[in-house]
Amino acid sequence: MSRTAPQFDLFDDDATGFRQAPRPRPRKGGPSTSRQRDESWDAEAAANRLEDTGDYRVLRRLAPRPIVARGDSPFAHLAVLVDTETTGLQHAKDEVIEIGAVAFTYHSDGRIGDVVGVYSGLRQPSAPIPPEITRLTGITDEMVAGQAIDIATLDALIEPADLVIAHNAGFDRPFCEKLSPAFVPKAWACSVSEIRWADRGFEGSKLGYLIGQSGLFHEGHRATDDCYALLEVLARATDDGTTPFAELAQSSARARVRIFAENSPFDMKDHLKARGYRWSDGSDGRPKAWWIEIDEELYDDEVAYLRQDIYRWDEAEPLSIRLTAQDRFRA
Contact 70/194 with Cβ under 8 angstroms? Predict the structure, then answer.
């Protein structure tokens, strides 16, 4: 599961405090008629009746889409959703213990087609899995003992892909590239940062919020389950009639520019922070400076802002790096 920092898992009963509701007591006064009720029971009709009152919202269990042959899908483009479970947050020292991937076709207009391939694999790390990772993912040392990811099978899924998608690509991409070079040249998209979820009426970008507000639930802690869940969220049109995937595809295709405000005056730090700049301490190889990443068409305005309001020098040329989907979200 992609993550930027230790956090509670919305699908973890212990973390959220949710508990299973107690079972109702059997009714008194006569034999059970459950079999008769089951034969005439229409669960979907009942759910619809509840929702029609306006007082209830019903979640449907997510059913994974069937896998079809690539040649039977009418859409030409191929994307792969990936999710990793790892021993920690730092790709330089931590290891992948599970990877899940779901490949699907899509049209250039953003319509999602068919699932055409799935891979799920466990991997034994070089050291015992930390207890907090087992609590979060459910993956134990016993489950991964002797397990290895089939890189050839995984590569066969990744190599033909036009786009690789992760829910927090900044976390997953470095781990995936460490796992297999097939990920390195690919265009990547991030379904956390490249979709305006708040504008689509969602209360957060964590997968638990997204799938719940999409009217679904799944019992997912595991990588492939979360890929299937994200696929359904991306495929469902929101109130404006567009799908989150269409927005993601368009956003990932745009070039962006990362600007580093090196040597900016110290007393300007609050102004930069308020404008959306983030601090880099230089430990990851980037310049030690405040920086921002913007759409390419906003570059001239941003440089003008830095020259006028921050540096107060018309000739200032802040370090700028142009990024495409092939470059973004790398370590």
Answer: no
